[in-house]
Amino acid sequence: MSQIVRPYGDTTGDGMVQLSFTLPISSIGDLAKVADGAAVQLANKMGMDPALVVHSKPMGEGFTFFVVYGRVNHLVDVSKVEVVERDYPLLTPKEANAAIKRALRRRLVVVGGCIGTDAHTVGIDAILNIKGFAGEKGLEYYREVKVVNLGAQVSVPQLVDRARQEKADAVLVSQVVTQRDAHLLNTREMSAAFRESYPAGKRPLLVVGGPRFDEAMAADLGVDRVFTRGTTPGDVASYLVHRLTTDRPDRKAS
């Protein structure tokens, strides 16, 4: 299970911040100084003092884009920052393949896709496709892993049915669309569907990923792991191998 840790550190403050925003005000001609003043006023109200407009540019009729630089005095207590610690070793593809072959004595089956109306497959493809991401090969490259990539806009019932059909060990879901917390609603719907469709303790590992997820929300969402931006195929492969060959003896070959 993922572990939430608190890193040690001193309380710090008095930092410099760069902020960009757009205001519904014109900055053309004589209005430029007025617009800059409005930007400084907003920055002051947000806690930046002093604030300096370092860039402004008209953005269509009646709008201006600003970049403001300034000092803030808000305190940050680093000791209260919560992060999810990686609680498994990182493996090379060769090590992962060897562990799967030794422990499962069969290929590890992964079913993945984007659920709901989400059509952004860049994330799931980066993890599953052989071309991979950040210089690492995707899970299709792993000899002992069978990958079933369902692509975009997969319904939850379709995902569950295919996972059962393939006897999946793990289900990977990518969610990029976040309007009205769609990624959270879709994930909870998915986890509930798998709980209803599998006997207790027998469902596949459920793993979700996307840039707007909070890693600490796995339990709340009903999934086993949440991955966020910067995750590589090696991260995911190492986690799956660890969980399925170490923590989930019920998933081993009988």
Automatic annotation (TrEMBL):
It holds the Pfam family B12-binding. Residues 107-251 form the B12-binding domain. SUPFAM superfamilies: Cobalamin (vitamin B12)-binding domain (SSF52242), D-lysine 5,6-aminomutase beta subunit KamE, N-terminal domain (SSF117778). Transmembrane segments: none annotated. This is B12-binding domain-containing protein. It comes from Nocardioides bigeumensis. The lineage of its organism: Bacteria, Bacillati, Actinomycetota, Actinomycetes, Propionibacteriales.
